[in-house]
Design brief:
The complex is a heterotetramer of chains A (358), B (176), C (635) and D (100). With 635 residues, chain C is mainly alpha-helical. Chain C folds into 2 domains: 545 residues, no CATH class; 71 residues, no CATH class. In chain C, a hairpin with a 2-residue loop joins strand 2 and strand 3. Helix content of chain C is 72%, strand content 4%. By secondary structure, chain D is mainly alpha-helical. Helices cover 80% and strands 0% of the residues of chain D. Classes of the chains: A mainly alpha (358), B mainly alpha (176), C mainly alpha (635), D mainly alpha (100). Chains in contact: A-B, B-C, B-D, C-D. The interface between C and D is medium-sized, with 12 and 13 residues.
């Protein structure tokens, strides 16, 4: 089995996982909001309403596709595709679990093990702007364009804070390789050596930015219903709208995975190293391949739990906090998060410089 | 997919190259600024793909991050914001002569570039080679120290300039 | 002189730096009156105290030095910014700083109602600094710096009230005339560089004293050097033909006249002369020339002074005349006598000028002595001071002028014979006449104008220096009393150690006692008689006799200014006009037209490519790059 | 034909087409895109040469180029906005006030 084939398999697997996670998340969100608001929510389709996303999907698929007469025909269609594409690509560099040993060779559970994974992740997520901008402009609708403009400036503004925080993280870890970053977080006796404990400020800033990057409440101004009808996807219907929907949830997954990988030790099971786990399963009498597969399964579970924690917080926040005003949003991004990020960089530099002397 | 440079190009390389050439042609031929901007983005992406293909992931990632993620967005943004209508190519007296002259110059330039650079000898080309971010940072902090600082200063100046321009002190005051 | 040289290091540079600091501070702080004057006076007085401390180091030390630093070096030419002090210069140092301090004090009151006294005091301090530089510098370049510095300050101070065009003209006249003289200094400096290879004073003197090295020099070198210095001294010390600036320089404020034109600047020529005496002493022909020029100057100035009506002009011409006496002494080969006269003259001339300032102040800026009269009772202290000054300068027995002038006359008699002596004596008697003429006209008879009736005595700040200077004028001469009268030779003994070679005059045979008594008696009695005659003649008021030709010639200063104007200035101006017109038309305009035409043609050619379209520029740029690339490739 | 040659050809082509775009397009924004294309071609050659010679020194220049391109694009585009506000057009032929 070549690395290329393995990558292809992993691509399918990860893609499928994300695509499964999206409808799951939809039902979680709808039921969760209902729960928080003391109402029932969708509970008719299947047990506990679990079939509801399927019904939604069917509904979207069969709805009429509407393309406005004055819209730019190509870009109008291209935009939803661009919305799904970056998050899926971005997921390719995120390590989901340790490595699987097949025929004596270790294969990392990851689509592409890239030496500059962190940079790549940032680069790809920054492309999300394109879909929003294109959608807003191609719709030839003032609400769409306003939403698109709001969205793009918001995303670009918060990307700067993200970049600054990533600088301090790189200073801490000394590498851009996400898998190595995860491995570095494996150690630790009392506390796991997670980024959360090494870079708490960066964690907070990045977490806030993650909300802004995915256009979620409290930063959902691009699609603020009360102001802009539905923002940049006002003119979209049917499957195209569904793609935007999926793109948003996929982006949330990427952001959660990003935070997990950088701050919560990625796929690491707390306090238990990959070595220990493998040895545990080997001791149970499994072969090397099976032991590694079992280990990876456990790690993937750990990873999923952490990601779903962040996903749940997304939902939680959405139904708890009101929407920001636009100037407040910009104030927060430029005048609070960015200076804090810069401060954090300086603190990190000082710490990195002084650490050998401490 | 880490290509060795003096072997025959892989199919991936061919595809990426074809895209780069195609999109750059579109930038030239299309009359619609939006199409040009999108095609520019396509070229930049194809180039990034070539970087990945020859094993320079760092430059590839930076290319996407800065060029595709920032510069191309700016272009699209401006084109959309100013709502530029499709343009024809230049129409001047003697346009045909000018066009052929410029085309010959460009073709000659391409030929010259190719001929000059293709002759460059390379001993190490037979093996794959990968540069990491560390290599670059070592250069930036030793060899190119001054240039690095100057570039930082340049970016700072550009930020200030852009802000000043955007505040509109140079243009006509709008009464909206 | 015969002992082993005892050279001691001393903080001499501070003596120069203190007044310089005063100039800078006054110029920059712009203090209100009287604080600017107090600052200037204090700094000048500090320099005086420091000078006294240095003075006290003699005669144990033969020479004080402050090596300073290397100012610049070009090839083998080194200019050392260093200072040295010989016993003779130490006396001059006391005169400069001491009299300077008194004049500063005087000016504090005198200038208090001026518009910008800080400017005045800045110049005044700068002047003192430059003068000290001139006196102390161990290098001829440093001396030249001070030389030019006093020239500049003189220009600034004479033209201090620049609103009046007359004053600025006088300042420019002083400056330009001095420039003509400075040419001589420069020539001497170049000669020093070319032949001695050094510009340090002691270096030059050593060179000359060394018989081997001196013999190797061409004979004309020392003559040219000496003549250059003499020419420069003519400019600075107002000898014929360059004396014309000094009377006009009376346009400046009176303290300036006192400081520059009496005590210090005008004596700088004599100073340099005396400092370099070993060179001049050997130039017999040059000394003869110096003597006769000086005699002519003394006579001419005295004759002009006989008829002047402006009080300060009278004093100015008397200064020129006294300078003639000093140079006559030099020409007679008696530097000590000349220098002694410098010192005494500094005292009584400063006194006279300051008193004149006090009078003019009391007369509300009226300078015409014909409009004064009867001030004796209104300004008793000024009257006393002026009287003391007059008897001192006229050479009444036992005053300062008596001893110094007597010394000069004796020396002239010794070396130049009877005729020269009688001529010089005549000039001395004329001095007595015109001084008592002015004295009588100012203080006796009745007031001849409103201002004179309402004249008032000056305040204590002005009178204090007058009193001090009066006392000095009376007693300073006792430093050097002819041996027939008691043989005090404090001054010459003090001064003698300053040169490493012997003074020529010392070896001359001494006159017998009766001759000496006779000479002294003639001078003293003559001056007293002339003074009484003048007093009688003018006690009733100014002369009302018809204007004779001689009177006109004297009153119009021998028409020297007019002659200079006609025969020197106007030809120069004509030639200069021609040259400037030619240069302007052909060289400057031609250059500009050529430049302009060249630009125009180039611009016309270049503007073909200047289409205003960015893209065509880009094509051109690309073509250029390709061309460069090809050239580089083929290379 | 090796990979190196292919990349070289692509780079030369992209550069030339960028130059052509810059010379021929009437819209200032598109002309600027031509500049970006030219820079991109140069970058490609630099990276390729760095890979060829196993040397990061030249390749570091690419980062400078990218940085300068970013600064240039930001400034140029804001200038375009101003120009558009002032003249209502971004057609390069209309900006000829510097004609000599």
């Amino acid at each position: 089995m070549t690395l290329g084939l393995w990558s292809a398999i992993m691509a399918v697997a990860v893609g499928a996982a994300v695509m499964t996670g999206v409808p799951l998340m939809v039902i979680v969100e709808r039921r969760g909001s209902a729960w928080m608001q003391r109402r029932s929510g969708p509970n008719r389709g299947g047990p506990w309403g679990l079939m509801q996303p399927l019904a939604d999907a069917v509904k979207f698929a069969f709805k009429e596709e509407n393309i406005p007469a004055k819209a730019h025909p190509i870009l109008f269609v291209l935009a939803p595709a661009l919305a799904v594409f970056p998050p899926l690509i971005a997921f390719s560099v995120i390590p989901v679990a340790g490595s699987v040993n097949i025929g004596g060779v270790d294969y990392p559970v990851q689509v592409a093990n890239m030496s500059v994974g962190l940079l790549f992740l940032m680069a790809i997520t920054s492309l999300h702007v394109f879909s929003v901008l294109t959608a807003g402009w191609a719709s030839n609708n003032k609400f769409s364009l306003l939403g698109a403009l709001r969205s793009s400036s918001q995303m670009i503004s918060y990307e700067i804070a993200i970049g600054i925080c990533v600088v301090s993280l790189v200073l801490t870890y000394g590498t851009l390789d996400l898998r190595e970053i995860v491995k570095l977080q494996e150690a630790g006796s009392q506390l796991p050596a997670w980024g959360l404990f090494m870079q708490p400020l960066a964690f907070l800033i990045l977490w806030v930015c993650a909300f802004a990057e995915t256009n979620r409440l409290p930063f959902d101004l691009p699609e603020g219903e009360s102001e802009l009808v539905a923002g940049y996807h006002t003119e979209y219907s049917g499957m195209k709208f569904a793609l935007f929907f999926m793109g948003e949830y996929a982006a949330m997954f990427v952001a959660s995975a990003f935070l997990t990988t950088l701050f919560l030790g990625g796929y690491n099971v707390p306090f238990i190293s990959e070595e220990t786990l493998r040895n545990f399963f080997l001791a149970k009498g499994l072969g090397l391949s099976m032991a590694s597969v079992a280990t990876c399964a456990l790690q993937a579970l750990s990873f999923s739990i952490k990601v779903f924690f962040f996903m749940w917080v997304y939902v939680w926040i959405r139904w708890t906090l009101p929407r920001f005003r636009y100037d407040q949003l910009m104030y927060l991004g430029w005048k609070l998060l960015l200076p804090l990020g810069v401060l954090n960089v300086f603190l990190t530099i000082a710490y990195t410089y002084l650490r050998p002397h401490l | 997919m880490n290509a060795v440079l003096n072997e025959a190009p892989s199919i991936f390389m061919w595809i990426a190259s074809a895209f780069a050439v195609f999109f750059s042609c579109v930038v030239y031929w299309s009359n619609n600024p939006i199409a040009c901007a999108v095609a520019l983005m396509g070229t930049l992406f194809s180039t990034a793909a070539l970087y990945f293909a020859i094993g320079n992931y760092f430059i590839g990632a930076v290319q996407i991050l800065v060029y595709a993620g920032a510069i191309a967005v700016l272009f699209v943004f401006i084109v959309m914001l100013l709502d530029l209508k499709p343009h024809k190519l230049r129409s001047l007296p003697g346009q045909g002569a000018y066009l052929s002259f410029v085309t010959i110059v460009a073709a000659g330039l391409a030929a010259l570039l190719f001929c000059t650079l293709a002759k460059t000898p390379s001993e190490e080309a037979g093996t794959a080679f990968q540069l990491s971010a560390k290599n670059y940072s070592e250069y930036f902090l030793s060899h190119y120290q001054v240039a690095f600082q100057a570039a930082g200063l340049l970016v700072f100046a550009a930020i200030l300039g852009a802000i000043q321009l955007a505040r509109g002190h140079f243009g006509k005051k709008e009464n909206t | 002189m015969n002992e082993v040289a005892n050279i001691v290091a001393a903080p001499l540079s501070w003596i120069v730096l203190l007044p310089l600091a005063g100039a800078v501070l006054n110029g920059s702080l712009r203090l209100k009156s009287p604080f600017n004057g107090i600052l200037a006076t204090l700094l000048c007085f500090a320099a005086f105290i420091l000078s006294c401390l240095q003075f006290a180091k003699f005669p144990e030390a033969t020479k004080l030095v402050d090596p300073g630093y290397l100012w610049f070096q070009a090839g083998h030419v080194k200019a050392q910014m260093g200072f040295e002090l010989t016993p003779f210069m130490s006396v001059m140092l006391l005169v400069i700083t001491g009299v300077g301090s008194l004049i500063h004090l005087y000016a504090t009151s005198y200038m208090s109602h001026d518009k910008s006294p800080w400017r005045f005091f800045a110049y005044l301090n700068l002047f003192v600094a430059a003068m000290l530089m001139l006196a102390l510098s161990s290098d001829l370049i440093g001396v030249f710096l001070g030389w030019e510095g006093v020239g500049v300050c003189s220009y600034l101070l004479v033209g201090y009230w620049y609103e009046d065009e007359k004053n600025t003209r006088a300042g420019m006249k002083a400056f330009i005339t001095n420039r003509v003289g400075d040419l001589g200094f420069l020539v001497a400096l170049f000669v020093a560089f070319a032949f001695f290879g050094t510009s340090s004073v002691s270096g030059i003197l050593e060179w000359v004293a060394d018989p081997v090295r001196a013999a190797a020099l061409p004979a004309w070198v020392l003559t040219v050097f000496a003549f250059g210095i003499f020419w420069a001294s003519c400019g600075k010390s107002a000898q014929i033909p360059l004396y014309v600036w000094l009377p006009d320089a009376m346009a400046g404020p009176t303290p300036v006249s006192a400081l520059i034109h009496a005590a210090t600047m005008v004596t700088s020529g004599v100073l340099v002369f005396v400092r370099l005496w070993p060179i001049f002493g050997a130039q017999e022909q040059l000394l003869t020339l110096v003597f006769w020029v000086a005699l002519a100057t003394a006579w001419m100035a005295a004759l002009i002074a006989l008829t002047q009506r402006d009080l300060k002009k009278v004093l100015a011409y008397s200064t020129v005349s006294q300078l003639g006496f000093m140079f006559a002494a030099l020409g007679a080969g008696a530097p000590v006598a000349a220098f002694f006269h410098v010192v005494t003259h500094a005292c009584f001339k400063a006194l006279l000028f300051l008193t004149a300032g006090s009078i003019i102040h009391g007369m509300h800026d009226e300078k015409d002595i014909f409009k004064m009269g009867g001030l004796r009772s209104k300004m008793p202290l000024s009257h006393l001071a002026y009287l003391v000054g007059c008897i001192a300068i006229a050479g009444f027995p036992f005053t300062a002028g008596f001893f110094s002038k007597d010394l000069i006359l004796t020396k002239v008699f010794e070396s130049r014979g009877l005729v020269a002596y009688l001529l010089l004596l005549g000039a001395a008697l004329l001095t007595s006449f015109y001084m008592f003429r002015s004295y009588t006209l100012v203080f006796w008879s009745k007031p001849r104008s409103k201002e004179a009736e309402h004249a008032h005595e000056s305040d204590a700040t002005i009178l204090t220096p007058l009193m001090i200077l009066s006392v000095l004028s009376l007693i300073v001469g006792w430093l050097e009393i002819p041996h027939v009268m008691g043989h005090v030779q404090k001054f010459s003994q003090w001064v003698e150690g300053s040169w490493t070679v012997a003074l020529r005059g010392n070896e001359a045979a001494e006159l017998n006692t009766s001759t000496e008594w006779l000479l002294m008696g003639i001078a003293a009695v003559g001056s007293i008689l002339v003074a009484i005659y003048a007093f009688k003649k003018y006690s009733t008021g100014p002369d009302t006799s018809p204007e004779t030709v001689a009177w006109k010639v004297s009153f119009n200063k021998f028409y020297v200014d007019e002659l200079y104007c006609k025969f020197i200035i106007q030809p120069f101006r004509k030639v200069g006009c021609k040259i400037s017109v030619w240069v302007d038309e052909w060289i400057l305009d031609g250059f500009l037209h050529g430049l302009f035409g060249g630009y125009r043609v180039t611009g016309q050619v270049a503007s073909i490519f200047h289409t205003g379209s960015v893209q065509s520029y880009a094509v051109l740029m690309l073509l250029g790059l390709l061309a460069i690339w090809e050239v580089a490739r083929i290379w | 034909m090796t990979t190196a040659h292919l990349i070289l050809m692509v780079a030369a082509f992209v550069f030339s087409i960028g130059a052509l775009t810059f010379f021929m397009k009437r819209s200032a924004v598109v002309a600027l895109m031509g500049v970006e294309l030219m820079l991109n071609g140069v970058n490609l050659i630099l990276v390729e040469a760095g890979q060829l010679h196993h040397n990061a020194q030249g390749t570091s220049l690419v980062l400078f180029v990218i940085l300068v391109a970013a600064a240039e694009a930001a400034l140029a585009l804001s200038i375009f906005v101003i120009l558009y506000r002032k003249y209502g057009t971004l057609t390069l032929e209309n900006y000829r006030s510097l004609k000599g």
